[in-house]
Amino acid sequence: MSNNNRQAANGQATRTCQFKMVLLGESAVGKSSLVLRFVKGQFHEYQESTIGAAFLTQTVSVDDTTVKLELWDTAGQERYHSLAPMYYRGAQAAIVVYDITNADTFSRAKVWVKELQRQAAPNIVIALAGNKADLSAKRQVEVTEAQTYAEENGLIFMETSAKTAMNVNDIFMAIARKLPKTQDVSNPTGGRGRGNDGQSITVTRPTNQRVGGNDGGCCGSSGTK
Fold this sequence. Notes:
Blueprint (H helix, E strand, L loop, with lengths): L2 H8 L4 E11 L5 H10 L12 E10 L2 E10 L9 H5 L4 E7 L3 H17 L5 E7 L11 H10 L3 E4 L8 H11 L22 E4 L11 E6 L4
Parallel strand pairs: 1-3, 1-4, 4-5, 5-6
Antiparallel strand pairs: 1-8, 2-3, 2-7
GO molecular function: G protein activity; GTP binding
Protein name: small monomeric GTPase
EC number: 3.6.5.2
């Protein structure tokens, strides 16, 4: 009998955790496309630039825990940079995205990482995504260079392609594994922990999209308000 079946037989509710995740990076690196691919399984060749920030939600399962991700897709244009702290404040996770065919976006990604390390929550889980891997023939940023940088800064790293879906679910799932599942509800931003790499993970499509949200990070039984 599976864990879920045993829980159902015992009448035990699956835990639910909610986390705030922000996506940062230069304009046109594919942040919105990554979110759209992860949440809806779609890709649009010509994606309009985000103004301010867009908000979507997605729910994933990590073993016996339902993880609700509040995804804040921020605008990459420089004129919106001053708004970024409003979105990453209180975030438990961040994906910093760059375009592998544009070295300048990788340099900019490093600036975002430093800003998060300096101003975001001290235990924020940060992932670095080298997007547009389907255009590897035009690459300007080598995998080894990005991998070394990620290791030196304690970042999750993957090259992704929103177009082909390469590693899109994987990078979000890698973050979900590292997010804490047992923190005190009364102290949602404390008690960070690492997940087990052997955890099983499934993805479900979003049931709602809304504007707004809280800092997330609360764990409790299903049905708990």
